[in-house]
């Protein structure tokens, strides 16, 4: 017998999104792959302080416990940083460094860089560090394949603009083959090219889900949203331009969407909490 549609409310969600969440909840094997910062966790000045919204955290933990449900985090953070702030279990799949680092489960990870790439990343940091140190509030986050320069703590917009211009110029001078990404209050430099779309495709290849839900808020999430198939569901968090057809307003609304997905999947799989 097919379960009756879920008529319970999901405040703040578009009815079309609710219908899509209910649809995707019914597939036998579901991959829920989500960006972390700005999607599950509010943006904060210190990335080490970021933690998932409590309601989102609870919904993800419950989803991961359901049969046929894989929950993964996909981030520009290093794998180590993502595992820490995401409070990820050892077996949880993770994609870090924009697809360069992939962990499919405990003890099953794909390395990000070789020794030559590590040397290039070190040379890059040596060149950019004086530029960053000269701007109060700016700081460098090391990554396995490069680095990210954060400007959220810089008060003067003109200083941020000048910093970004100087970083681009210095990076091009030291290594013309870098991958450069401008994000929200951050510029990232990598010695190897990969995207969140590459990381998402690696997860799909490994787990072979019947459908994928991906959600993200930043420009770097567009690669993963563009990699989704016709039966998948992409959600944009926030108001920025996106290839995603559906969106939610903010982190709290994303948590509500995950709660809706959980209720529907529990009902359709017969799971009981």
From TrEMBL:
Its EC number is 3.1.3.12. GO terms for molecular function: metal ion binding; trehalose-phosphatase activity. The keyword Cell wall biogenesis/degradation does not apply. It holds the Pfam family Trehalose_PPase. It catalyses: alpha,alpha-trehalose 6-phosphate + H2O = alpha,alpha-trehalose + phosphate. Its cofactor is Mg(2+). It is an enzyme of class 3 (hydrolase). Pathway: Glycan biosynthesis; trehalose biosynthesis. GO terms for biological process: trehalose biosynthetic process. Keywords: Hydrolase, Magnesium, Metal-binding. Belongs to the trehalose phosphatase family. Removes the phosphate from trehalose 6-phosphate to produce free trehalose. This is Trehalose 6-phosphate phosphatase.
